[in-house]
Amino acid sequence: MQSADLLRLQPPARDVPGDVRLLVRLARLEGLMFFLTLTALLAAIVVPNTDWRGFLFAGAVDGVKGTVVNAEERGYQEGKQTVSRVYFEFERGGKKESGNSHFVGSRPRIGDEVRIEWPRDHPEVTRIEDARTGPLHRGALAVLFFPLFVLMMTQAAWRMASISIQAMRDGVPAPKANPPGLASPSTGEVLLSLEDLPRGVEVGMDGVWSLDSSSRLTRPSVVSVLGAGALGWLAWTVYEMVAHL
């Protein structure tokens, strides 16, 4: 769009059609929603496999003797040490129970006697003493900050899109600005640069905002749906983890 196109705009307050507003918002959010999809999926996969239940052992714990019945390598290493899963059995309250724990490097051998412990307030969570309840270190929970950061950026981008739409509705042409755009009628501050308008948004010959024939809402819409879906999956995963405690 050229600066001369702004001169065709109707006087404020002009109408901004719904499809134009939608494209302005989604186009600004598209890149962020792509990263939200990646980071939320990563977090949804990583978080359940961390030793997050290990935080429960910070308080009072109970324990009994148990026996290692099986062990297997997980097929990857941490700090050049093999990660293993060790299966155990123990008897509690006259009932035979089983579980598993994870070790990095050295681990108990099959047949070894070990101490099995559990938080007093969560007896269903068991582990071998000082072992992990999941294969990944609790530090991996830091992946949760990635989608949270993207959400913060998305919120800021949404506010910027709102300012752009307000400028399209109430702004006056500022053709002398560099680059040209729409300015506040009261302060003269440029609120929207033409460079910030997504491709496909134009001023029609009747002086109203419209989308040209090349405009496509499909891609930004799909990316936004994927981002929202991945975030929903992450939220559900965290909810299920907490609910099963």
Description:
With about 240 residues, the chain is of the alpha+beta class. It folds into two domains: about 5-45 and about 140-245, no CATH class; about 55-135, OB fold (Dihydrolipoamide Acetyltransferase, E2P) (Beta Barrel). Helices cover about 35% and strands about 25% of the residues. The chain contains four helices and ten strands. The strands form three sheets. A five-stranded antiparallel sheet has the order 3-2-1-4-5, with no helix packed on it. Strands 6-7-8 form a three-stranded antiparallel sheet, with helices on one face. A hairpin with a 2-residue loop joins β1 (about 60-80) and β2 (about 80-90). α2 packs antiparallel against α3 and α2 runs parallel beside α4 (about 220-245). The radius of gyration is 28 Å and the shape is rod-shaped.
